[in-house]
Every structure is written in C-alpha cells, then in structure tokens.
Design brief:
Blueprint: E1 8-12, H1 22-27, E2 29-33, H2 38-42, E3 47-50, H3 58-61, E4 70-73, H4 84-88, E5 92-94, H5 101-116, H6 119-127, E6 143-147, H7 151-162, E7 166-171, E8 175-178, E9 182-186, H8 190-193, E10 199-202, H9 216-221, E11 227-230, H10 239-248, E12 253-256, E13 276-278, H11 289-306
C-alpha cells in the first residue's frame, strides 16, 4: 500500500491483548475488538490481524470487510479462516509459520521418550509410594513416520534423527533423497507404510484431503506396538476410531495435543486411558510465544506498508504456505 496513507488495522484479540504493538499503533489506526465487535471493526479496515487464532468469528463478520486487502493469522494453521468467501477474494492471507517449529519438535521427542521410558507410570507409582522395577525401551533405531513435511515436520524429523530414530515422511509427493526425511511417501498411500512404523506423528495441515485421514483403516494398519502422536489438528483424526484402537490394543498408545473438540470434554474416555497422554493444545507454546507471534506480524506489517513482498503467503487453494514438502 502507499507509504503516505495511514492504514486501518482491525485486530481480533480475544481475551488477550497482543504485546509489543506500540510501534504499529503509531503507524496505523488500530481497532482492537472481540468476536462480537469484529464486523464493526472490519468496516473500512485495510488489514486484519487474527491474533485470537482459535476464533471462528471471521466468516460471520466477513460481509463487513468492504476494503480489506490483507489478513494475517497468528498461527501456522489457517483452517479457521479458510472459508469460501476468503478463498475467492483478492485478500492476501499470511500465517505465522516458523514460530512453533522447534518447540513442537521438542514436544514430540518428549512424548516419544515418555512412552519409551514409561514416565507416566513412574509418576503414578511415585504418587502411590510404590517401588516397582521395570525395564524400558530404547528409542535409538526405532522407526518414525512424520505425516506432514512442512517446516514443523522438518524440525521434528531433524530432532528425532539426532536422537537416533529412523525417520521418514509422508507428503503430497513421493520422493527419495529428501535432506530431512530421506524417503517421503505419498500421503494417499498411507496405509501401505504404517505397518513398518513404531511411531506415527501427525502434523499435516487440515485440508479436505487430510480431514479424518487417521481413521479405523489407518489404525488397523499400524502395528500393535506403535504409538500415535498428534500435534497437527484434531480433525485429522476420527476420534471414535482412535478410542476404539486404543481400547482394543490395535495400537499401544497415543500422545494427543489437539482434539476435534477443544477443550476436550470431561466425559471423553481419552482422559482416563492409561496409554494416552493428553495436553491442552500447548505443544508449541514456549515462554515468550505471544511476543514471537507479534514479531512475525510486525515484520509483515512493515513490508506491507513499504509495498514489499510479504512472508508466509498462503496458497488459498492448497490451504497452506507452499514449500518443497
């Protein structure tokens, strides 16, 4: 946009005010709003910063976006704003790819170690003051399939390889010689490769092609000793099928950070299963993550003001930022 024009920026903040916004407030008219006021904030706005990235308020307020040219969401996943009107519009969509890569990779390694070293049971036995010697598993040499070969998947692959695991990937295109995954399998042939894996990590973006990809057929293809870890989107999984696979021993365990309904309902059987590790959508949330999200937005804001190319531009047909993966 023109560097002499003062832009109007709508910020969907939810119950948290984004930090470090003072420089942007000096360069733009900033309208902070919650979901109820979003439509009013969008009228005449040039840009929208969806800081409350879990909100589903944007589609309902979209009719008021009469001047919008750019929308930035403070997350890597863009499914909350991938509705038909946005897809078909000229509004540029950017995301916060890159902020959570390493912290999510550390989370995945932590989950694998927790399963292999039986740490949840150790905590339960400690609470009971029970001394029960057990043997634990090695992680070195274990096979891992990372389903999703974007930046987060690549960070996971690099860290797991450094810990001695054998890593491969599953993505849109099958190929060999990938620098991080070695072999990348085609996601649409997933069940052919699942039987070879000790751990399966779901980190794929949520699209029409990936929704429900981990269903009864997928879990039946996995070996009984395998563990499933989901740090992508809850909707990648058919939850009832996962519960049944865990209940019957079709798979050995699951580490779950995302769910199709959040918060996870109190009545969900996943809460009480001994072979399930539940965390509240926090795998990427390191200390300082909110500041890091605003840094990414601010970098793009100054680029946008200067008419420079934006980073992390989402292909609205694909539903994510294109990469080599």
């Amino acid at each position: 946009m023109s560097g002499t024009e003062t832009p109007v920026l709508a910020v969907l903040r939810g119950d948290k005010h984004p930090p470090d916004m003072e420089p942007i407030e000096e360069a733009a008219v900033v309208r902070y709003t919650d979901a109820d006021g979003l439509a009013d904030a969008l009228r005449g706005a040039d840009a929208l910063f969806v800081y409350d990235f879990l909100s589903s308020a944007v589609p309902a307020a979209w009719h008021a976006a009469d001047r919008l040219r750019w929308l930035h969401i403070a997350s890597a996943g863009v499914d909350p704003v991938m509705f038909p009107e946005l897809r078909e519009s000229d509004v540029v969509l950017t995301n916060s790819r890159g902020v959570f890569d390493d912290s999510i990779a550390e989370y995945v390694l932590g989950q694998i170690l927790a399963f292999a070293k039986d740490l949840p049971r150790s905590l339960r036995l400690q609470a009971q003051r029970t001394w029960q010697h057990r043997e634990s598993e090695r992680v070195q040499g274990r096979s891992v399939l990372v389903v999703g070969t974007g930046p987060i998947g690549r960070s996971i692959a690099r860290l797991l390889k450094a810990a001695g695991l054998r890593v491969s990937g599953a993505g849109r295109r099958e190929r060999a010689g990938d620098p991080d995954f070695g072999t990348v399998y085609a996601s649409d042939r997933l069940t052919e490769y699942l039987p070879e894996m000790d751990y399966v990590v779901a980190v794929a973006p949520l699209t029409e092609q990936t929704k429900g990809m981990f269903d009864a057929r997928a879990f039946a293809a996995m070996r009984p000793q395998a563990r499933f870890i989901n740090v992508g989107r809850g909707e990648l999984v058919v939850t009832a099928d996962l519960v049944e696979a865990l209940r019957t021993g079709a798979i050995a365990g699951a580490g779950l950070d995302v769910f199709d309904t959040e918060p996870l309902p109190p009545e969900s059987p996943l809460w009480t299963m001994d072979n399930v590790l539940v965390s509240p959508h926090m795998s990427g949330d390191f200390i300082g993550w909110r500041n890091a999200l605003v840094e990414v937005f601010a970098d793009n804001f100054w680029r946008w003001r200067a008419g420079e190319p934006l980073r992390n531009v989402v292909d609205k047909k694909l539903g994510y930022v294109p990469s080599s993966g």
